[in-house]
Amino acid sequence: MSALPVSYVAAADARSRLAGLATPPGALGLLGETAVWLSAAQGVCPPRPVPNVHVAVFAGDHGVAAYGVTPFPSAVTGLMVRAFVDGTAGVAVLARQHGAGLRVVDVSVDADLDGVPAEISASKVMRGSGAIHLVDAMSHEQTDAALALGAQVADEAIDAGADLLIGGDMGIGNTTPAAALIGASLGVSSEQVTGRGTGVDDEGLRVKQRVVANALRRAGMRVKDPHDRLTALGGADFAAHAGYLMQAARRGVPVLLDGVISVACALIAEEIQPGSVAWFAAGHRSPEPAQSLALDRLGLSPLLDLGMRLGEGSGAVAAVPLVRSAVTLLTEVALLSDVLEP
Predict the structure, then answer these.
(1) What is the pLDDT of residues 20-37, one digit of tens each?
(2) Is the peptide bond before 46 cis (omega within 30 degrees of 0)?
C-alpha cells in the first residue's frame, strides 16, 4: 500500500485565502502554514476543526539501558505505563486539558504489567528489544508484527472518529536507538546525533556516543534498507510507531509529530512509504540534536520550541491548541477585499 496523496488543489485554495486575509503578508507565520497543511490533508478550504485528537503511546524497553546510556533503570518504563493508566503522566495531564483521547500500548515492555487493563499488553510483540550495539533490536518477524500492531492502533483510532493523530513514546534508553536510526537514515556520525536524553552527564554522553557508534558499525550496510535498519537499530516500539504513522498516511488522517523518537519513526515511514511526510506536521522541537537534523531532512518546521524533552507525545499535545488556532484564523479572519468594500 502507499500513502494517499494530499489535495494540492485545497492547498492552493488555502494559500490564496491566506494571502487574501486582512493581515499583513506572512503575518500569521507558521500558523498560516499549518492551516494550509491541514487544508491539503482534509481536501477542503478552509480546513475543518479537529475536535477528535487521539494520542497513542507506544511503550517498550531497550537493552542499551543497561550500558550506561541513561541514569534511570528500565523498571521505570513499566511504572510509567501505570502512570498513563492512572492519568498522572505528563501527556495524560495535557491530553485531558486539551480534550484528546489517550491510549498506551505495551509493545515490548520487559515486565508483566499486573493490575493494568489486559488490553494494554494484549498484543505485546516481545519483552525488551536487544542491545543494539551488540545484537539486532529484534527479528524481521518481530518487526513485521510490530508494524502491523501500529497500523491496527491507527485503524482503531480512525474508525472511532479521530481527525488528528499523535504518536507518543515511553521507554527508558529509547533516545539511544532513536539517535542510531537517525544517524543511519541521514548518514551522519554518532557525535552529531547523540544527545543527553533524560539528562546524562558528560561522561554518560561519551558512553552513549560510543554505543551509537558501535551500533552503526555493527549494522553495517544493512542500514541502507529501512526495514533492515529498523530491525537492527530500532525496537518493537519504534516499529509499531512507524506502522501507526504509515497507516495514518494510507488512511488520509493528519499526524502531529512529537520528539526525537516520533521523528525517527517518521523518517522510516517516509522511506518505506514515500509521500507519508505530506501528512505530518511537527509539534515541537526537542533539545535532542538528532531531532533537528531529521526535521530538516523531512522539511518540517516545529510549532513549538520550549526545550521540552519529556517524550510521551507531550510536546505534540501541547501544540494542539495552535493547530486549532490555525483553523480558526483561516476560517474566521476577514478577507481584505471584504474590509475594503465601501
Answers:
(1) 999 999 999 999 999 999
(2) yes
246 in the same domain as 270: yes
Tell me the pLDDT of the chain averaged across its residues: 97
Please check the confidence at residue 214 and state whether its pLDDT lies above 70.
yes
Catalytic position from the list 33, 312, 332, 341: 312
Nearest to 183 by CA among 214, 139, 162: 214
Which residues are within 8 A (CB) of 181 and not within 5 positions of it... i.e. 6 or more apart?
Answer: 229, 230, 233, 234, 238, 264, 267, 268
Annotated catalytic residue 33: no
Amino acid 55: pLDDT:
98
88 burial level (CB within 10 Å; 0-12, 13-18, 19+): exposed
Average pLDDT over residues 286-306: 98
Mark whether 22 and 57 lie in a shared domain. no
Q: Which stretch of DSSP H or E encloses residue 162?
A: none
Question: Do both 94 and 27 map to the same domain?
Answer: no
Give the contacts of 263 (CB within 8 A, at least 6 positions apart): 182, 257, 282, 290, 291, 294, 295, 298
The reply to whether 31 and 79 lie within a common domain is no
**What pTM did the predictor assign?**
0.97
Q: Range of 99's domain?
A: 53-321
CATH number at residue 19: 1.10.1610.10
Candidates 143, 164, 183, 118; CA nearest to 60 is: 143
Residue 37 lies in a domain: yes
Q: Angle at Cα 66 formed by Cα 123 and Cα 130, nearest 5°?
A: 45
32 lies in the same domain as 59: no
**Residue listed under C-alpha cell 504509515:** 246
In-domain check, residue 2: no
pLDDT at res. 208? 97
Which triple of cell numbers denotes residue 304?
A: 513549538
Q: Name the domain count of the chain.
A: 2
